[in-house]
Design a protein that fits this description.
CATH architecture of the largest domain: 3-Layer(aba) Sandwich
Number of helices: 18
Distance between the termini: 31 Å
Mean pLDDT: 92
CATH topology of the largest domain: Rossmann fold
CATH class of the largest domain: Alpha Beta
CATH superfamily of the largest domain: Nitrogenase molybdenum iron protein domain
Bound molecules: iron/sulfur cluster
Number of domains: 3
Shape: globular
Low-confidence stretches: 452-462
Radius of gyration: 23 Å
Number of strands: 13
Structural class: alpha/beta
Helix content: 40-55%
């Protein structure tokens, strides 16, 4: 039974700020993220990230305890910086705060300065403090704050580099690869903020437990001040672009997520605002293949009702994409309170003649309740949607973060024309599996009930 709840979140569709920060930092070469907080914070991040990416995840912790909470975390932070510097010698240590250390008011920048002053003359890594209090935001703000802090501390104006900064957002290594491939085909030189495509989908090797030796370099982050422009794929991760525009006049464009035909076209036209790029035949062909896939799948997807949950840009991107495919986005849920999300969905709804239920700042409890009220044919979102899908007897198309009950999350791609083709194929096959028989005929509602009944009887007989 649904209880109207006013003061609680049940099964949140969001995570804490340091989680977003760590995701951004794992795309930087030779870097250690250090969480200034209790061991539980870093254990939680490592646990979630490892079971999603199936890679070893390096996150250090200042291991705060009862005593240090009372006397302050200075000793622990100084000790952690010393240990990491001596044992791992990274080029960058990014110190993110946590609920605990923000609450007791530790001055991370002051403590870092103290460490640097005490080690004058020694070769030290660059150390950057990043404020990520979880009670003042989600992983979305954590990602945004981190990219902004990196650019704020490191970007240095020098000679124009002719490149375009791409703030990639919280997307899978496969999606990052897809965007990079698109840029290469367009002959567009870029700086990816940040590039997790190798670190989080790495080949098996003996150096698996070393520092990440791929990803965006510190030199590249410094060079962002000299680029032609910045494009943020996520409208909720554009603070670094805004800062670069204000400080160095590097023009910035925000979103939309290049999911589907229309949004990928918009991404290419955004690039063309900064420089003249000739779209090669190979890209035209990929675009044509996506259109072909959509046409082939249309009869199976047309008017299928879909519920989508996850990060705001993912939900608005997939809303646009699924409506392009002829589906009917019916319930849209994100865990973040966001004016831009509401504006985006309203705009898409107006353009496509949709009337979805919007759950901004919603949780999975609300989502489940709405699905009971307005049944849908398929759910799109992360693994936390599995129990809803099972209870409602609908398929779950797994995308987003985290995916821990299936393998290959790092290889799920939905962005660009090629990611779009994967998505159309996969979601249509899921629908075929669920709603069509082996001869290709749609299973009617009565047939489906009969098979459920016979399944139940069969179980009882056993
Ligand atoms: S919500 Fe706060 S205490 Fe919990 S893991 Fe995140 S930072 Fe740590």
């Amino acid at each position: 039974m649904y209880h109207d709840k006013k003061f609680s979140v049940i099964n949140p569709s969001k995570m804490c700020q340091p989680m977003g920060a760590i995701q951004a930092l794992l795309g930087i070469k030779d870097t250690i993220p250090l969480i200034h907080g209790s061991q539980g914070c870093s254990t939680y991040m490592r646990f979630q990230l490892t079971r999603h990416f199936r890679e070893p995840i390096e996150v250090a912790s200042t291991s705060m305890n009862e005593k240090t909470v009372i006397y302050g975390g200075e000793f622990n932070l100084l000790k952690a910086l010393k240990n990491i510097t001596e044992k791992q010698s990274p080029s960058l240590i990014a110190v993110t705060s946590s609920c605990l250390t923000e609450t007791i008011g530790d001055d991370m920048a002051g403590i870092i300065k103290k460490f640097e002053d005490a080690n004058i003359g020694k070769e030290l890594p660059i150390i950057i403090p990043i404020s990520t209090p979880s009670y003042a935001g989600t992983h979305i703000e954590g990602y945004d704050n981190t990219i902004k802090a990196l650019v704020e501390y490191l970007s240095t104006p020098s000679r124009a580099n002719g490149k375009i900064n791409i703030i990639i957002g919280n997307n899978s290594p496969a999606d990052v690869k897809e965007i990079k491939a698109l840029l290469t085909e367009l002959n567009c030189e870029s700086i990816i903020l940040t590039d997790n495509s190798e670190n989080l989908d790495a080949p098996l090797s003996e150096s698996a437990l070393n520092l990440y030796n791929e990803g965006t370099t510190i030199e590249e982050i410094k060079d962002t001040a000299n680029s032609l422009g910045t494009i943020s794929l996520s409208k909720h991760a554009d603070s670094a672009g805004v800062l670069l525009e204000k400080k160095f006049g590097v023009k910035s464009i925000s979103g939309p997520l290049p999911a589907g035909l229309e949004n990928t076209d918009r991404f290419i036209s955004s690039l063309c605002k900064f420089d003249e790029f000739e779209v090669p035949e190979s890209i035209e062909k990929d675009r044509g293949r996506l259109m072909d896939a959509m046409v082939d799948a249309h009869s199976y997807n047309y008017r299928r009702k879909v519920a989508i949950f996850g990060d705001p840009d993912f939900v608005s991107g997939m809303t646009n994409f699924t409506s392009e495919m002829g589906m009917t986005p019916t319930i849209l849920c994100t865990g973040v309170e966001s004016k831009r999300f509401n504006e985006d969905i309203n705009l898409i709804s107006e353009k496509k003649g949709l009337n979805p239920t919007i759950l901004a700042s919603g949780d999975l409890y609300d989502l489940h309740h709405k699905i009971k009220e307005k049944p849908v044919d398929i759910l799109i979102g992360n693994s936390y949607g599995a129990s809803i899908a099972q209870e409602e007897n609908i398929p779950l198309f797994r995308a987003g973060f985290p995916i821990f009950d299936r393998l290959g999350a790092q290889r799920i791609s939905v962005l660009g024309y090629n990611g779009g083709i994967n998505f159309v194929d996969e979601i249509t096959n899921t629908i075929l599996d669920y709603y069509y028989d082996e001869a290709g005929y749609e299973i009617t509602e009565e047939e489906s009930h009969e098979s459920t009944r016979s399944g139940l009887f069969a179980e009882e007989e056993v």
